[in-house]
Specification:
This protein is an alpha+beta fold. It contains two helices and two strands, in the order E-E-H-H. The structure holds zinc ion.
């Protein structure tokens, strides 16, 4: 028995096997798409990155190549 909570509709679900819940942690494809839509909407957008981007040394080197 596997239990999980759908992040979209907040419902608890119990399935016999993991294979029975292909959309886990979502209960269905619909809930997965709803979550994806929130991301695209910007609702989950992270305002600031946790750490600054490392300098792109590799890109500069490639550009300097003659
Ligand atoms: Zn759901």
């Amino acid at each position: 028995m596997v239990a999980f909570q759908c992040p979209t509709c907040r419902q608890m679900f119990h399935v016999e096997r993991r294979e029975d819940a292909p959309w886990r942690p979502f209960c269905s494809q619909r809930c997965k798409l709803v979550d994806l839509g929130r991301w695209l909407d910007g609702s989950y957008r992270i305002s600031e990155p946790l750490s600054p981007q490392p300098p792109t040394v590799g890109a500069e080197k490639e550009a300097a190549e003659d």
